[in-house]
Design a protein that fits this description.
alpha+beta; Uridine Diphospho-n-acetylenolpyruvylglucosamine Reductase, domain 2; Uridine Diphospho-n-acetylenolpyruvylglucosamine Reductase, domain 3; 5 domains; 7-stranded antiparallel sheet; about 20% strand; globular
Length: about 500
């Protein structure tokens, strides 16, 4: 049973006053949402198994309003839940009954495109795909491309450090964000990073990216944009077993080839996707690899030939190469629609997000089949094979008594298996509430305390997105934080500057 911090009754008793204060800060029509029917769309994110109406929702329109809201919340000790497009799959935007949900979707403008420095400055509510659409007329694009890129916001991508099908070669969000403007819980506006490739000092941008709304609210983003490759072609490679497919993935990487994308699907996912999209996927194979090579024409032609030979040596029984751009996009449309395809054949599904060493792929896939039998639920596998980021889709029926609990237990066992073979709990969806209580499987108590100290440095009252990531969040006193004066007294010989 998911447990969240108990609502603060003192805050709930002040709801009318809080609403009035928010309307003073955001006077525009519809900027403050208070009616239950209008709050309903905000009761969950993409992890729809868990729902809670927020106390109120506010939609600020500029950084000054965000700063004023957070300063008010800090002064009055009111909890805050930041929210982007609501497409997250780990419950990171799950509201709280005593918290203000701050929706950033009115921050939806592209502010500047710097072609010379290959950078774009955008607001956090701009969609992932929206960045590419803003620059594609000059042959540029934004590389990270989650399956939800048509809807997910760049602010949410930063919160979860999202990846996508091309992250193997071009990196995750953290590798493509150059700078942010962020507002702290005290209402202070910070700028971290910028258009320059290297920044002095601590890597605060690395800490902020993937922090899941626990450290502050991002109000502006500077991202790297790339030149569209001269050529891109995709291969479909079919195998009689997931083990052969996994071995082919390892062999491609071992050969020194880094594809633009390297994805894998198992038989249940292939069948569901082909029925939905009709991308031309073969239905008589147990595993399907989608490999994309990009770059200069001569290089792509050479690599296509090499990958084809590697696949044949690994037992490929099916091979098809895209002949034009339309066919390449059709191949990818199947992969990017795999999640909704599963939604057509199952009343509900839960999408997991573990990452493992590539060499353990076949072992983990076999283990998941054993777990499927153990829990009595089906599973379809769609994943970023090149970097070992798995997305098992657990199929269940929430209206059937006990099915949700079985799905949760199944998902927990999958993530424990990922950690056991040397992997991690999340590759790109974040911890949120979904994986929160599994953090102890991966981190020691000391590990967790170090992470909590970073949280406390930004938000010692634990007002930003409480109940997420940390199973139990300690107070500053419990963590025995050393303040500057205490350090000076304890270590008098350390030089002071």
């Amino acid at each position: 049973m998911l447990r969240m911090p108990e609502p603060d009754q003192h805050t709930l008793a002040r709801r009318k006053d809080i609403i009035a204060a928010m309307r003073d800060i955001i006077p525009s029509q519809g900027g403050v949402i208070v009616d239950d029917d209008q709050l309903r769309p905000y009761e969950c994110d993409g992890l729809m198994a868990y729902r809670q109406l927020p106390m109120i929702v506010v939609l600020p329109e500029n950084t000054a309003q965000v700063a004023a809201i957070l300063k008010y919340c800090h002064t009055n000790k009111i909890r805050v839940v930041p929210r982007g497009a609501g497409t997250g799959l780990s419950g990171g935007a799950l509201p709280m009954a005593d918290a203000i949900t701050i929706s950033m979707m009115k921050f939806n403008r592209v502010l500047d495109i710097d072609w010379d420095n290959r950078a774009a400055v955008v607001q956090p509510g701009v969609t992932n795909l929206g960045i590419t659409r803003a620059v594609e007329h000059k042959g540029f694009y934004y590389a990270p491309d989650p399956s939800s890129q048509i809807a997910c916001s760049i602010g949410g991508n930063i919160a979860e450090n999202s990846g996508g099908v091309h992250c193997l070669k071009y990196g995750l969000t953290t590798n493509n964000v150059l700078g942010v403007e962020m507002v702290t819980i005290e209402g202070e506006i910070l700028r971290v990073g910028g258009k320059g490739l290297d920044q002095a000092g601590y890597d605060l941008l690395g800490i902020i990216t993937g922090s899941e709304g626990l450290l502050g609210i991002v109000t502006e983003v500077t991202v790297r944009i790339l030149r569209k490759p001269e050529t891109a072609r995709a291969l479909l490679l079919g195998f009689n077993s997931s083990e052969e497919g996994g071995n082919c993935v390892a062999a491609i990487i071992a050969a020194g080839i880094i594809p633009g994308g390297l994805e894998m699907m198992d038989a249940p996912a292939i069948k569901a996707t082909e029925e939905f999209v009709q991308a031309g996927y073969p239905l008589d194979v147990e595993a399907l690899l989608l490999v994309e090579l990009d770059g200069p024409q001569v290089e792509v032609d050479y690599l296509i030939d090499r990958v084809g030979k590697i696949a044949k040596d690994c037992g490929a029984v099916y091979s098809r190469i895209s002949e034009n751009e339309e066919e390449r996009l059709l191949f990818w449309s199947g992969r990017k629609n795999a999640f909704p395809a599963i939604g057509r054949i199952s009343p509900d599904y839960m999408c997991m997000d573990g990452t493992i060493p590539r060499g353990r792929l076949s072992e983990v896939l076999t283990g998941m089949q054993d777990l499927s039998k153990k829990h009595g639920l089906g599973v379809a596998n769609v994943f970023h094979a090149g970097d070992g980021n798995l997305h098992p889709l657990i199929m269940f029926d929430a209206n059937k008594a006990g099915d949700l609990e079985k799905a949760e237990a199944f998902g927990a066992d999958i993530l424990k298996l990922c950690v056991a073979v040397g992997g991690v709990l999340s590759g790109e969806h974040g911890i949120g509430v979904e994986k929160r209580d599994l953090m102890g499987e991966m981190f020691t108590t000391d590990d967790m305390k170090h992470q909590e100290r970073i949280k406390m440095a930004f938000d010692e009252d634990q007002l930003l997105n409480p109940g997420k990531v940390f199973p139990t969040l300690h107070g500053c006193g419990e963590l025995k934080t050393l303040h500057a004066k205490a350090v000076a007294d304890k270590f008098p010989d350390i030089p002071r500057f």
